[in-house]
């Protein structure tokens, strides 16, 4: 069992394993809680920096769930389709951090938004630069031929 886990975690860099673990958490713990147990009156979803509340938050939460599940599956298999889509999704988060901090009353303004966005640019760039890590075995065989 331990050897199987070691082999599984060896497929990815430490930061990719951390991202994979976050996607697993969101898929199996947070999003089910958010969708099935959080009262609609308290529910919020953020899309491109705009906060949705109540009904629209509940209605769009399954899409977030689907995104996290797809990312978790992609990291598990190290699927070729993950490049560039994982980087694109995280870039969208970086942009959303700026927009949210500018628009939401709880936001910290443009400086906090720029800092938060810059923080998310780090994994965006990292995901963009690891294209080879997301190549499928079939693609490896084609390149070797």
Keywords:
globular; mainly alpha; 74% helix; 145 residues; two-stranded antiparallel ribbon; 6 helices
Give the secondary structure arrangement, pairings included:
Elements (H helix, E strand, L loop, with lengths): L1 H9 L3 H23 L7 E4 L2 E4 H24 L4 H22 L5 H21 L7 H8 L1
Antiparallel strand pairs: 1-2
Overview of this protein structure:
The protein contains six helices and two strands. It is mainly α. Strand 1 and strand 2 form a beta hairpin. Helix 2 (14-36) runs antiparallel to helix 3 (54-77). The termini are far apart.
In short:
By secondary structure, this protein is mainly α.
Residues in β-strands, percent: 5-15%
How many individual helices? 6
Distance between the termini: 35 Å
The count of domains is: 1
- Which strand order does the major sheet show? 1-2
Structural class: mainly alpha
The whole-number mean of residue pLDDT values reads: 94
- Global outline: globular
Radius of gyration: 17 Å
